[in-house]
Design goal:
heterodimer; A: mainly alpha; 4 helices; 0% strand; elongated; B: mainly alpha; Arp2/3 complex 21 kDa subunit ARPC3; two-stranded antiparallel sheet
Chain lengths: 115, 213
């Protein structure tokens, strides 16, 4: 496989994964969130039911404990585009994938030494 | 395991940022010294692929989910733990700034856990285990598993220092979930290395003689 084909195949795989992600990804809390909910009583550590009320209270409680109440409105919160459904999420993740590709390419270009 | 802002007090978050910046500087030095022109497209495609795969949360038991981190893969394919720091830092910046995935004040901690710990544990366990197995695929699987598992334990210790989790319960729950999520990390790392090696045996940084075909 020549270099160009190899890289295009790699990019195609990345974009297919990006497009599929919102449709196949689980919306369960990730490991860290789940541990957090478990420790703060919004969920059993080895159970799967989340008490939404307790979960929200836990999020307020933790900011009070650490004193870090920094908040920031990102343009695509949780990989979503306002007003768009799952297809918006797919678009957001594709945008992110292409952006990471561009930044990684650009920065590597600046840093790398020539052959 | 993207830590949100509220989980770490600002002074501690600043310390993690300083440590992360040292490793980012070292990763840029790696890029300047070791990255050759012909590796640029591979670095870019790996970064894009890692960003995309991180969007796929796989369900695990206990109402939880997890996704691949990709640090072990980047370090193994590019031949340096600093390559993982380089790639994961870019991914984490885009995730945090554009998508609110992982906090900004605590991004240093996320770079340490996923880039530095993930990259170093993944790279050196792969190096150590490959000759042991005389085959890179089991080594890649275990390296991927360990990279995620150890990063999760370090994260639990940071949470304990922050006063967010009690140490024992934090280590237990983070360890439990990530022992399972690590299987995803190890599996995809091994499969990706197999695919890359099959398509282009010359492109891997590791001596390909170690790969059993």
């Amino acid at each position: 496989m020549n270099t160009k084909t190899f890289l295009l195949a790699g990019l195609a795989v990345a974009l297919v994964i990006a497009a599929m992600a919102p449709f196949i990804a689980s919306s369960n809390p990730d490991g860290l969130e789940s541990a957090f909910f478990g420790i703060f009583g919004a969920k059993e550590i080895q159970g799967s039911e989340i008490n939404e009320e307790h979960a929200e209270a836990a999020e307020e409680e933790i900011a009070a404990i650490t004193g870090n109440d920094f908040s920031f409105e990102s343009p695509f919160p949780d990989y979503s585009i306002e007003g768009l459904s799952k297809f918006g999420e797919a678009a957001a993740i594709i945008i992110g994938t292409v952006l990471v590709l561009g930044i990684a390419f650009g920065l590597s270009r600046i840093m790398a030494r020539p052959e | 395991m993207h830590i949100p802002d509220a989980f770490i007090p600002l002074p501690q978050a600043a310390v993690y940022w300083i440590i992360a910046l040292i490793f980012i500087a070292l990763s840029l030095r790696w890029a300047r010294k070791e990255m050759r022109d012909d590796k640029i497209p591979l670095v870019a495609v790996l970064a894009a692929g890692i960003f995309a795969i991180q969007a796929i949360n796989v369900p695990i038991p206990w109402g939880t989910s997890g996704h691949m981190m990709g640090a072990a893969l980047a370090a193994i394919v590019l031949g340096s733990p600093f390559a993982a720091v380089f790639v994961l830092t870019l991914v984490l910046i885009v995730q945090g700034v554009l998508f609110g995935d992982g906090g900004l004040t605590v991004m240093g901690a996320n770079i340490i856990n996923m880039g530095v710990i993930g990259g170093f544990v993944g790279f050196y366990s792969y190096r150590g285990l490959s000759p042991l197995f005389k085959n890179v695929y089991p080594a890649a699987f275990i390296a991927g598993w360990l990279s995620l598992f150890i990063a999760a334990l370090v994260c639990a210790v940071e949470m304990a220092i922050a006063g967010t989790f009690p140490l024992e319960l934090g280590l237990f729950s983070m360890g439990l979930y990530h022992a399972v999520i690590g299987v995803i990390e190890g599996g995809i790392t091994a499969v990706a290395i197999y695919l890359i090696h099959t398509a282009r045996p010359d492109i891997m940084a590791e001596p390909s003689g170690m790969v059993s075909s």
